[in-house]
Amino acid sequence: MTVKNRKIVKSSKQWVIKNADIDLDFIPRYKVIYREIKYPRIELKTGNLVVVAPYGYKKIKELLIKKQDWISKKIKIIQSALKNNGRKKIYNRTENEFKKIILSFISKYSNRFGISPQKVFYRKMNSKWASCSNSGNIIINKIVSFLPVQLIKYIIFHEMIHLKIKKHNAEFFNILKKEFNYYEKYEKILMEYWFKIQNIEENKKN
Ligand SMILES: [Zn+2]
User: How far is the CA of 131 from the centre of ligand 1 (A)?
Assistant: First the structure.
């Protein structure tokens, strides 16, 4: 492995090697983060490759070669999502404004479905817009706040169905389709927003 121009940022929690170059042509640049963990993993949250590895881990190149197909496929999907997201408007709402929108949709659909969540939580989540727990709580990713109202509505509707139907089965999609005929389009736009927001959040950190 050849590492050129490497910039190591050391903190108490982790070591970061930025812009590590490796002689693999399917992925020219990546970042390595060393942490107090047991097993290495590969992340592509922003479209940039990040290897998170335990301190002293030496088989990064082998790991990347092993996961090459998965990485290439994933990068392609992310790149095409990023291509389409230039014009997507990011909304800046206060926490109050955001919660008001969420709660208004929840109460609207609670009335319609005759079921309401136990509690609503707002959290930072790494891989989901929202989720519904077995105990009937709805958890909303804080970054939902950046989305247009129509997409927020779609996300809430999805989670409200989960209060009745846990799985993404035919019954689930029947209900979803009745309200959002073109739900695949919503999913696609959501994915484009996802990567746009992940990149904005990542840039804020740097
Ligand atoms: Zn779901």
Answer: 7
